[in-house]
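Ticket closed. Logging final result for Thioesterase.
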Amino acid sequence: MMLTWQEQYKVKSYETDYSGCLKLGALFNYFQDAAWNHATHLKAGQKDLENIGLIWVLHKIKINVTDYPKWQDCIALETWPSNKDHLYAFRDFVMLDGNQNALAAGTSSWLLLNTDSRRPQKIDTLKDPIPVIKDKQALIDPLNKLNGHAALTGIMERRISYSDIDINEHVNNAKYIEWIEDCISEYLFEKLRIKELQVNFLAEVKFGQTLAFHISEIKKNELYIEASDIDTRKRIFQSKLVLG
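Final structure:
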């Protein structure tokens, strides 16, 4: 059984932005792909959970990016389970270039949800215990609670469509990152890039919902973005990012 998992990727043209660099949303797809494949190897993958009425959902994620690969670059995504407690499974990852230099590093926490009740379940509900590597950390920084900000400005609205929905019948986590990139497009077109990002996922989003996005500048090149359901005003996610 491999406790550290690695997947190889070649950056495709449709995964890049106007400058030919990998979009952050595409990196999240890489991470999700590697995480799912490793979970399957550890007998805790999508098919294993489907049989017992459970799904994995991303709870929080934090990533630091040193450099972005470009179109046709070959990279490796390495991931491993770094810790667990009664409700959360923690998974770290690094993105490496062809010379094994770290381009990005991140940490994340995951919940098990009951597919009927959508309520969190204890990690020890799983038949096979998840092994962890506690002495190997991609990031030292903890996954903290994010504070809301009073000085928020509405920036866009989005109605959830067919293309947003994944195999778990809710919005895939990489879509949230694409929305965040859309919220800061003026910064990205000024050749700034996301260097640090934390996203806390607070509620599932389903087909047909409409979200309102709000932004606040904490200080120069440090932003807070959140989204809420336009009808219920329920907060859907919070994020904090640093540009550079």
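The longest helix spans residues 24-41. No further action required.
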